[in-house]
Design brief:
Helix content of chain A: 55-70%
Radius of gyration of chain B: 11 Å
Structural class of chain B: alpha+beta
Largest sheet of chain A: 6 strands, mixed
Number of helices of chain B: 2
Largest sheet of chain B: 6 strands, antiparallel
Oligomer: heterodimer
Strand content of chain A: 5-15%
Number of strands of chain B: 6
Strand order of the largest sheet of chain B: 1-6-2-3-4-5
Structural class of chain A: alpha/beta
Mean pLDDT of chain B: 89
Low-confidence stretches of chain A: 31-39
Largest interface: A-B, 47 and 34 residues
Number of domains of chain A: 2
Helix content of chain B: 10-25%
Strand order of the largest sheet of chain A: 2-3-1-4-5-7
Low-confidence stretches of chain B: none
Strand content of chain B: 35-45%
Mean pLDDT of chain A: 86
Distance between the termini of chain B: 6 Å
């Protein structure tokens, strides 16, 4: 790649559509929002304008350059390093005053600066009248208005950036005289207020709709109900929508297995190797894809839709009281939400928590909420043992039960967080301020593209990477025989006493252990063990699965224990590796493995004993 | 004129920020979010369990825990 002619640094408050501007400038798709994997690590992109190459560095979203968080340090260091030829500050047109404060701070540190007033469409919607020319005069830096989601103003922005790097305006005068640090914050804020008053006329009822929605979605009377209903709806759509495509995929991928074997045999590979590749590797991968892809392709877009609309911070707001009780950081509710998608992503997401103590609490407890890989198992078991019958009533009941399981998982997360914050991770909770950004109309098309490309395929790709070698190992345990019986049987027999104590059996425990690479393959391994088929065993539909499980001694009590252990057991391989990387410590990683496992074993055993006593 | 702390405001009530009693880094963060002496704040909405509270300040909505709001002194109207 050629050296870029110019470097553009992109700065701004969180939730102002900064990443949308970044994407629109560079045509590189990236998540919006200020949680990790997104902008906490600095993203880079590039574009060419009038024959010259521009590199764009997307700095983390910050409210200030002076407070001591990781994001602010990254932004401040980059801006002060002089690596950028121009700094583009993105501001929210509906909240200019607070946004201009950051602009003024940046103008004191670096030069030249261009201001991009984004979300013009939202401002127009709210009846906010803007005078950007007056703002430009008062500031002495170029000001460009954009509605980046529609690509409006982007061409002008590229032109103004070009002017700014080739023939910058003279340095603007200081906006505020130098002060002591403390007065400086107030002086900058006062100047920002003056400028905002000059540039924007905000009608008194501009944010009326936001407040109304907040009353509905976060108030004492309706907030929690609305949250449960929304999450329940998301689960129901995922469950009801994924059935048919899952079956189709499984049929199509399954029908390719024999042709693949024929092809491999034709190449002259020994029959055992072909069997290992087809029955072991290919079959496991095919299973993981057909079970995981449809629910993810529904769940992630729905989740991204809620995120895009600005609902996630409201979840954090609603639940914060519980996290206070647990002695945890307010942002932990956000990392927990990410854990529902993928625990490894959730653990990485804990970078948004500044305090090391509270970050560790969030990391250690992330696997207590079921990720997308465990949801299909939960759904299958709940449906066939507690809501069997089919039809819309059954999927509604399953969604309700799943919601119950999730409430239990959240409750356990809080309990363990509290336990940790009272014992090994004692300390005072740090203060936090959570912005509730304006609600936005989500862009359905963009949401679909982004969530399918970035999240679904990413998670699926990783699942396939672990499923392929796991498939081989599983096939080997089922096909290598010692003294006439496969290795699998010995292992299951060894685990049987513990399994029985927990209301399960040895084979179920073994399936969880062999499912360490990816939680998605627990049920296939189980079926393989029960049926001694030597390869992952597909079930045609849920009634078939029900028969198989009943024939192997499952009762509703076994199912209940299986649900509990699915919720609470060791994190998957990817998550463990991520925890090791994020904490840099083997001891914390081991604790992260031991905690949910101990909780799962204890809960299952207690449940089994209780049910036995009750008869 | 009445003196109080921010956590005393009920939803719908407004006041002016007088001072912040936080250690330095946290103080700076809240200043940058708009809680500067002299700024107008309005309590908008309490979370379902009564805590935290969402405040309108400088055209944005910021939620603070009660324990933190107690460290911001206000002058009532």
């Amino acid at each position: 790649m050629r050296e870029p002619s110019y470097v553009v640094a992109l700065a701004g408050n969180p939730n102002v559509g900064k990443s949308t501007v970044f994407n629109a400038l560079t045509h590189l798709h990236q998540h919006t929002g200020n949680w990790p994997g997104k902008t906490v690590a600095v993203a880079r992109g590039a574009y060419t304008y009038q024959g010259e190459d521009y590199a764009v560095v997307d700095l983390p979203g910050t409210y200030s350059l002076f407070a001591e968080s990781a994001e602010e340090e990254i932004a401040r260091d980059f801006l002060c390093s002089g690596q950028a030829d121009v700094t583009l500050v993105v501001a929210d047109a509906t909240c200019l005053e607070r946004n201009l404060n950051l602009l003024l701070q940046i103008m004191e540190k670096t030069y030249p600066v261009v201001l991009c007033v984004n979300l013009l469409d939202e401002a127009a919607h709210k009846g906010i009248a803007l005078d950007l020319a007056a703002l430009e005069d008062a500031l002495g830096v170029p000001v460009v208005g954009t509605a980046a989601r529609d690509g409006e103003g982007l061409e002008t922005l590229r032109r103004v950036l070009r002017q700014a790097v080739r023939a910058p305006l003279p340095p603007p005068p200081r906006q505020v005289p130098p002060h002591e640090e403390d007065q400086e914050a107030a002086a900058l804020m006062a100047r920002a207020a003056e400028l905002a008053a000059l540039a924007a006329r905000v009608p008194p009822d501009a944010h009326r709709l936001d407040r109304r929605l907040d009353r509905l979605l976060t108030s004492r009377r309706t907030g929690l109900l609305a949250m449960l209903a929304l999450l329940g709806l998301v689960f129901w759509l995922t469950i009801a929508g994924a059935n048919v495509p899952s079956r189709l995929l499984s049929q199509v991928l399954g029908s390719l297995q024999e042709p693949l074997r024929a092809l491999l045999l034709q190449w002259g590979l020994p029959a055992e190797v072909c069997a290992a590749l087809c029955d072991g590797v290919y079959r496991t991968v095919a299973w993981v894809v057909s079970v995981m892809l449809p629910p993810m392709a529904i769940f992630f877009p729905l989740f991204t839709l809620l995120e895009d609309a600005g609902y996630l911070p409201r979840v954090a707001f609603n639940l914060d009281r519980c996290f206070q009780w647990a002695g945890a950081h307010g942002r932990q509710s956000l990392t927990m939400c990410m854990g529902f998608g993928c625990n490894a992503c959730g653990v990485m997401g804990c970078r948004i928590i500044d305090s090391p103590r509270e970050r560790l609490i969030a990391i250690l407890t992330n696997a207590f909420v079921p990720c997308n890989g465990r949801l299909p198992t939960l759904i299958a078991v709940l449906t066939i043992f507690f809501a069997f019958g089919g039809g819309p009533g059954s999927s509604l009941l399953t969604a309700a039960l799943l919601l119950g399981a999730i409430v239990a998982a959240v409750g356990m997360t809080l309990l363990i967080s509290r336990l940790l914050s009272r014992t090994v991770l004692r300390g005072t909770p740090s203060s936090f301020a959570l912005e509730l950004p304006p609600y936005r109309r989500p862009r359905v098309g963009q949401v679909l593209v982004r969530s399918v490309l970035d999240r679904t395929l990413f998670v699926l790709g990783r699942a396939v990477m672990v499923a392929a070698p796991a498939g081989l190992v599983i096939w080997l345990t089922a096909n290598v025989t010692v003294g006439g019986a496969p290795l699998l049987t010995y292992l299951a027999d060894f685990l049987d006493p513990l399994g029985t104590l927990m209301g399960l059996d040895g084979m179920i425990l073994l399936a969880f252990l062999l499912g360490f690479p990816a939680n998605e393959i627990v049920i296939p391994i189980l079926l393989m063990g029960y049926l001694s088929t030597g390869s992952l065993t597909d079930y045609q539909d849920l009634s078939h699965l029900r028969q198989l499980l009943l024939a192997n001694g499952w009762t509703w009590q076994t199912a209940l224990s299986a649900v509990v252990f699915t919720l609470f057991h060791f994190p998957c391989g990817t998550t463990c590796a991520t925890i090791r990387k994020e904490t840099g410590s083997l001891r914390w990683t081991l604790l992260a493995v031991a905690l949910p496992t101990a909780v799962g074993i204890a809960a299952c055993t207690a449940l089994h004993l209780l049910l036995t006593v009750l008869g | 004129m009445t003196y109080a702390t921010l956590d005393c405001l009920a939803p719908g009530q407004g006041a002016t920020v007088q001072d912040l009693t936080f250690p330095a880094p946290k103080r700076r963060r809240l200043l940058d979010l708009g809680f500067v002496p002299g700024a107008a704040v309005t309590a908008l909405q309490a979370a379902p369990w009564g805590d935290p509270m969402a405040y309108g300040v400088r055209g944005a909505v910021i939620a603070l825990r009660r324990a933190d709001a107690r460290r911001i002194s206000i002058v009532g109207k």
